[in-house]
Amino acid sequence: MEFMIRRAEHSDVEELVELRMALLQEVGGLTNKTEIETVSHANKMYYEKHLKSEEYISFVAESQGKLIATSGLIIINRPPYLHNLLGMDAYIMNVYTIPTYRGNGIATALLDSCIEFAKNNHVGRIILTASADGLPVYEKRGFKRKSSAMELVLNG
Fold first, then answer.
1. CA 15 from chain center: how many Å?
2. What's the chain look like in SS3?
3. Nearest of 127, 150, 123, 124 to residue 138 by alpha carbon
4. Which residue in 90, 137, 129 sits closest to 111, CA to CA?
5. Pairing mode, if any, of strands 125-128 and 88-97?
6. What is the largest CA-CA distance in the chain?
7. Which residues make Cβ contacts (< 8 Å) with residue 44, sequence separation at least 6?
8. How many CA atoms lie within 13 A of 35 on its CB side?
9. Nearest by Cα to 62 from 97, 90, 21
10. What's the pLDDT tens digit per position in 30-87?
11. Residue 64: what pLDDT?
12. How confident is the model at residue 156 (pLDDT cuts 50, 70, 90)?
């Protein structure tokens, strides 16, 4: 299977939205047409704004002119701490490969692109939330499981 990894561009927004909707449907986050349309529109607006401003970095895998996988990364600037004196963290999200293309090293290649981008931008720590299927990919690259995360949903 031949594929090329590249940074996403504004012209990829529609396909990025499609991949995001596929991911959300697969993990059970969307269940009906109205939800899909609402979240799809919100994601389109997000990608158009944040890809342009580079607040959201996306790498994509392309095969035969079609996007078959994606990953996302945001940089978080926080006060420095002992193990990260620049205070730069990266959060990797939305790693998704179309099911028929899985098992070809695409997610690993996307992850490697995210890690390389983070290194080149002085990031001291990368965080992510992994699905059960994604754990081996991340562990292979040295990510460690942590259980300290908590959340408070304010709008949902």
1. 14
2. CCCEEEECCHHHHHHHHHHHHHHHHHCCCCCCHHHHHHHHHHHHHHHHHHHHHCCCEEEEEEECCEEEEEEEEEEEECCCECCECCCEEEEEEEEEECHHHCCCCHHHHHHHHHHHHHHHCCCCEEEECCCCCCHHHHHHCCCCCCCCCCCCCCCC
3. 127
4. 137
5. parallel
6. 47
7. 13, 14, 17
8. 10
9. 97
10. 888 999 999 999 999 999 999 999 999 999 999 999 999 999 999 999 999 998 999 9
11. 95
12. low
Q: With beta carbons less than 8 A apart as the criterion, state whether 76 and 90 touch.
A: yes
Q: Are 62 and 6 in contact (CB under 8 A)?
A: yes
- AA letter at 82: L
Quote the CA–CA distance of 93 and 95 in Å, as a whole number.
Answer: 6
120 alpha-carbon distance from chain centroid: 18
